[in-house]
Amino acid sequence: MLRLYAVACILGTSEAFTARTLKSGAKRTNAARCTTIMSGLIGFATMSGNTERIAGYIGDATGISPTPIADVSAADLEAADCIICGAPTWNTGADDMRSGTDIDDWLYSELPNADLSGKKVALFGLGDSAGYSGNFCDSVGELYDCFTARGATVVGFTDQDGYDHYDSKAIRDDKFCGLMCDEQNQMDQSEDRATAWVEQLKAEGMPL
Ligand SMILES: Cc1cc2nc3c(=O)[nH]c(=O)nc-3n(C[C@H](O)[C@H](O)[C@H](O)COP(=O)(O)O)c2cc1C
């Protein structure tokens, strides 16, 4: 017995002691426990603060602290288990660089360095569905094109119902390719929309 105790001390754990005392053929019942720590990332760009506010609602619902997109590297993206990214639209009618914020450069300088194959990404956008109803949240369509070009799978599509727009470059298969918020005309709906959208993302398999 003394010799067995000495072996356990050398191996350093009481579990080692238990293992050494098991008779041959006996089953170990203390199954190994494994803790998986998921890491999510919310990146956003903003000009006048609205997108940051919605990122905050999403952050509250997920427990993830939003990060300005300029501080997000390709390595950060690759290290994240899930990515949520949002931007406003200021460059009305533009083919690219539609946001008019620092995400425009980031999409074509930093994002192309990331391999996002097999990763789930969700997108959100801010716009004015009455004042710019022909270009509502156009930048989200550009985010969609840039993220899918890196191999990401975009989840969290939403219905177009309930907004005043008549067109948007963020429409894919008759749906918005993410969550759209309108702080000019529908500010009172944004928080509930964000909270419900996070539940949708979870139901669609985002590890949140
Ligand atoms: C000059 C100007 C251009 C805009 N162009 C668009 C547009 O093309 N599409 C749209 O949906 N919203 C447009 N907007 C509305 C902004 O996207 C909206 O105010 C948004 O909430 C701003 O978000 P931010 O505060 O995060 O920058 C425009 C606003 C201004 C003042």
TrEMBL record:
Q: Which InterPro entries match?
A: Flavodoxin, Flavodoxin/NO_synth, Flavoprotein-like_sf
This protein's source sits in the domain of life called: Eukaryota
A GO molecular function term, named singly, is: FMN binding
Which segments constitute the Flavodoxin-like domain?
Answer: 40-202
Spans through the membrane? none
Q: Which cofactor does it need?
A: FMN
Q: Which UniProt keywords apply?
A: Electron transport, Flavoprotein, FMN, Transport
PROSITE patterns associated with the record:
FLAVODOXIN_LIKE
To which protein family does this belong?
Answer: Belongs to the flavodoxin family.
Name of the molecule in the record = Flavodoxin-like domain-containing protein
Q: Which organism is it from?
A: Pelagomonas calceolata
Q: What is the lineage of its organism?
A: Eukaryota, Sar, Stramenopiles, Ochrophyta, Pelagophyceae
